[in-house]
Each structure stands twice: as C-alpha cells, then as structure tokens.
Amino acid sequence: MPTAGEPGFASASYLRAKAIWRGAPVRRRKRSSEDAPGGKPFGFGRDPKALGDVLVTVASDMGWSVELEQARIIEEWPEFAGEATAEHTTVQGISHGVLQIQCDSTTWATELRRLRAEMLTRLLREYPDAEIRDLRFLAPGAPSWRHGPRTVRGRGPRDTYG
Fold this sequence. Notes:
The protein is of the alpha+beta class.
C-alpha cells in the first residue's frame, strides 16, 4: 500500500471529496454535549481558577508579559536601587530595551555609570522577562530643543528671545 508522498497515495479527505462529487450522501457527525465548549458539568477543566492564574494566562496569551515586567521594574525602582539612590534618580522610561534613568546631578550619574555592569547583572537576574539590554544614566543638562524622534540639524530656533 502506498504511503504519503508516494504515487498512488490518496488521503482520506481526497477520497471523501471524490465520493461526494459522485453523489454519495454526506454523513454528518452529531455534536454531543461533551464536544461543546463547557463539556460535561463535572468534566475536566471545570474547576474555578484563582484570579492570579487567570491574569497570568491572559497576559501571556495577549503578549503583555514583557510590558508588565517592565512596568514592575519602574514601580519597584526604589527597592531595586535602594532608597538613597532612588532619592537622586527617577526612571524616565524604557526604549528599545534600554532603561533610562535621570539623575539629579552629574556626580550621581557618573557614580551610577561605574556601577552599571553590576546593576545590569542584578536586573537581568531579578527581572529575566523584562528584555532589558542596557542601563543609561542621564545627567542633568541644558534644556533641549529636540522633541520627538525626528529632528532637523542646525542651530535650532532663532529670534526666540528678542
């Protein structure tokens, strides 16, 4: 008997379609209550589930697990960095896998840049699903005229102050 992929092999669906085309009566299978989306009243999978388990399932089905883990990092920044560091830093956001942290002085930014490798290693260990690749510590600076992802090169706005 020929197997799939060999000449002369006919699948079950092909034979059924050929029989219907020749005029054979179509037999339809009756749906039982067990096939319906709830199944039997006391069947498998009918037990109530904890709300936390349902939310984890929905978040993974919808693809929200990365965003929720990143939001958890932002929310738990004072516990992660420590109270003294958190007083002088604020999380600006996460962009393309880079956690951006605004420091209130250049001294804090420089010191945290020195600790970047240690902090990143700890961050990857404690929040593995957040997909953070790097930390960026921003020092305070002069106000920027750049707003948005697209900018035009040049001197910036003129005749603004006079």
